[in-house]
Specification:
The complex is a heterodimer of chains A (about 70) and B (about 200). Chain A has about 70 residues and is mainly alpha-helical. Chain A contains six helices and two strands; from the N terminus they run βαααααβα. Chain A has a single domain (about 5-65), classed as 434 Repressor (Amino-terminal Domain) (Orthogonal Bundle). The relative contact order of chain A is 0.24. Chain B is mostly helical and about 200 residues long. Chain B has two domains: about 10-45 and about 85-200, no CATH class; about 50-80, no CATH class. In chain B, strand 1 (about 55-65) and strand 2 (about 70-80) form a beta hairpin. The longest helix of chain B has about 35 residues, at about 125-160. The radius of gyration of chain B is 27 Å and the shape is elongated. The chains are: A mainly alpha (about 70), B mainly alpha (about 200). Chains A and B meet through helix 3 of A and loops of B.
């Protein structure tokens, strides 16, 4: 997939666990795991909004585009 | 955790299907036993036969109530009629087909029961349900084949032995049903894709 979610990087920067984030953003742990592992097909603006708010970052910090050539 | 409440109509369909399935299983078992008895020679098809209904006219006359002229006929009737009047030869030809009908019908009910159970549990758009729907449509085509062959078979024997008898049985609706269910299975494939997309949208 060309869009990479750097949730684990942001969690490490903020020294926050996934469980802690799950409690703060009120999204289930399983859904956050889907997001973290890159299995998610889409992300809602509301989810992106709350993640940026809690992690004190910009959407560009969470989402990154990588072309398929660079992945190979 | 949020619990989904199943629709009453789905629950009713599930109960009715369950009851029908058990009745079909019982009838299938009964047919297996009767087939075994028939082909082992313990029971013969013509063991139970009917006698003609005898009507004997004993007296005729006229009555005149309210200036009307009514003709009356007094009759004696003797009724020995039975429901089963089947030659052993025909019984042996018909019984296996009847058994096959019921076995396929029971199998169809069993598949449908599994499908409606999944729907009742809230697992509507699943891979298993798509397979079940497709299997129903394929079995319906098979059912049509059996009915078609048996009607041809019956016509062959009846026209050979009874000369005037001919069976006409409309079976095309089974093919239409199969096609309709096959289309529904493909709609379920689209439903499954949407469901997966919804589940993976965070």
């Amino acid at each position: 997939m060309a869009i990479i979610i750097n949730l684990d990087v942001m969690l490490a920067k903020r020294k926050m666990s996934l469980t802690e984030l799950s409690e703060k953003v009120e999204i289930t742990l399983s859904n956050l795991s889907i997001l973290k592992t890159g299995k998610a097909k889409a992300i809602r603006f509301s989810t992106l909004n709350i993640l940026c708010k809690v992690l004190e970052c910009q959407p560009s910090d969470l989402l990154e585009f990588q072309s398929d050539d660079s992945l190979n | 955790m949020e619990t989904k409440k199943t629709l009453l109509s789905i629950r009713i369909i599930y109960w009715v299907t369950g009851i029908s399935l058990w009745i079909a299983i019982m009838l299938s078992l009964l047919l297996i036993v009767s087939n075994t008895l028939l082909f082992s020679g313990i029971v013969k098809g013509n063991d139970i036969y009917s006698k003609n209904i005898h009507i004997k006219v004993s007296n005729t006359g006229h009555v005149h109530p309210d200036n009307l002229n009514l003709k009356l006929r007094w009759v004696n009737t003797t009724n020995y009629s039975n429901l089963i009047n089947f030659n052993n030869f025909f019984a042996k030809k018909a019984a296996p087909f009847l058994l096959i009908y019921f076995l396929i019908f029971t199998y169809l009910l069993w598949i449908f029961n599994k499908f409606i159970h999944n729907v009742k549990e809230g697992n509507t758009f699943t891979v298993q349900n798509i397979f079940l729907l497709k299997r129903i449509s394929y079995v319906l085509v098979g059912y049509w084949c059996v009915v078609f062959v048996s009607v041809q078979f019956a016509n062959y024997y009846f026209t050979n032995h009874l000369e005037t008898y001919k069976i006409f049985l409309s079976t095309e609706h089974l093919l239409w049903d199969a096609l309709f269910i096959w289309i529904i299975a493909h709609i379920f494939i689209s439903g499954l894709k949407l469901q997966q997309e919804k589940d993976l949208t965070i």
